[in-house]
């Protein structure tokens, strides 16, 4: 299975530079259906917006966290009590 995440350019560049290895998604029914099916080693595509430029990564695992546990650069977008997926990735490389 390959899961695709479209990213804002600034987050894409963080992955590209090796500064980011985790992805965060709001725990909605939409993401639950997709993330819960992932198995260790599944491929993940990190797409730069809606361009053709992307990185490939391997899924390691995920956890559910509350909004107050998100990193500082994401604090502005959530309710502190909402649930979020924290997705751990490895072997991030140009696709």
What does this structure look like?
The protein has 95 residues and is α+β, with helices and mostly antiparallel strands. It has one domain: Hypothetical protein (Archaeosine Trna-guanine Transglycosylase, Chain: A, domain 4, Roll), CATH 2.30.130.30. It has helices at residues 9-16, 29-35; strands spanning 2-7, 22-26, 43-48, 54-66, 83-94. It has a 5-stranded mixed sheet with strand order 1-3-4-5-2. The protein is globular, with a radius of gyration of 13 Å. It starts with a strand and ends with a strand. 15% of the residues are buried. The mean pLDDT is 93.
Provide the low-confidence segments as ranges.
Answer: none
Compute the number of strand runs: 5
Trace the largest sheet across and list its strands: 1-3-4-5-2
Could you say what the CATH architecture is? Answer: Roll
Which CATH first-tier class would you pick?
A: Mainly Beta
Integer tally of domains: 1
In short:
By secondary structure, the protein is α+β, with helices and mostly antiparallel strands. It is built from 2 helices and 5 strands, in the order βαβαβββ.
In terms of topology, how is this protein built?
Blueprint: E1 2-7, H1 9-16, E2 22-26, H2 29-35, E3 43-48, E4 54-66, E5 83-94
Parallel strand pairs: 1-3
Antiparallel strand pairs: 2-5, 3-4, 4-5
Which terms summarize this structure?
95 residues, alpha+beta, Archaeosine Trna-guanine Transglycosylase, Chain: A, domain 4, 5-stranded mixed beta sheet, 2 helices, 16% helix
